[in-house]
Amino acid sequence: MKRIISVLLSCIFAAAVFAAGKGDAGKSRTGGELFVYSVINDEETRLLTELFTERTGIRVTYLRAATGELVNRVIAERKSPQADVLLGGPSSLHIAAAEKGALSPYRSPVSASFPAYTKDPAGVWNGFCVLTLGIGINTDRFEKKFPGKKLPAVWDDLTDPDFKDEIVMTDPASSSTAYLFVQNQLQRLGYDAGWEYLLKLSPLVGQFPSSGGAPPKLVGTGEYAIGIAYVHALAKYKAQGFPVQIIAPPQSAGEVDAVSVIKNGPNEANARAFIDFLLSEEAQTLFASLSYTTPVNPAVASVPGAVSIDDVDLLPYDAELAGRQRDQVLDRWQKTVK
């Protein structure tokens, strides 16, 4: 992956300040500014940061881009950080950034009673929602393309040659969704057998878009019959009335979407305040309603229509291993798979 350090992006970021509202002077704690690199979608980022400004008086600027791009950007800028918060992306990628010296540990007091799996013991990352992988099926297109054929039920079913050019998944070089899928197979099958699976599957994939939001959309709108995606993203399209069926195969990887403080960023105190806010009941309720993800705050329930992690046969997933292997795995992917 290329490290993105372009003047154009810097200009876009500098121009991305938005007026998040006047705020409530009675609720303002610190004021000042906050600069966020956000992986989550634009609407979710905007509404969360607007609420944060309303509650604290802190003005927010954000840049929205794909996970791989922003992780590389944080690492590349570590000698002169341009942002305060890395918002979104699985914990494994925050671990990778931390190993390069780009993140500053912070243990939020808000998460003191949260389950252990939702946070890093050293405070390198703080989880704000739980994600699981699945398979999305556009039932109308599937029935038209494969009349009488059973829907895929397990990961190995996707290697059926009949599915050639009807599968969409993102590029793991730019998308945390696809990197989690790659690690899912490497850890489910074993490293060597996992690569054999990926080499068998990749020729059947019709498109490798860069954004994790693309496969749910392309499946929902019927451009592909099958998509590999997070189940919460598929659930959003199903809730909107698209003919989407969600399959959670056995031994699916689950991850915690994380938020971290960028080391030596211009506003570290405000970055910590943002993490505290993001873990609060109010912010967790808002984000769950927007994203259909599973909240990490035990006081907040998932919204109707969301896929409960209790209903998924989860793989014992090693996020630390995934973080350490990132460069090696992506290098091999670029050379042998894509």
UniProtKB/TrEMBL annotation:
InterPro entries: Ferric-bd. This is Extracellular solute-binding protein family 1. One of its GO terms (biological process) is thiamine transport. Residues 1-19 form the signal peptide. GO terms for cellular component: outer membrane-bounded periplasmic space. GO terms for molecular function: thiamine binding; thiamine pyrophosphate binding. Coiled coil: none annotated. It comes from Treponema brennaborense (strain DSM 12168 / CIP 105900 / DD5/3). Keywords: Signal. It holds the Pfam family SBP_bac_6.
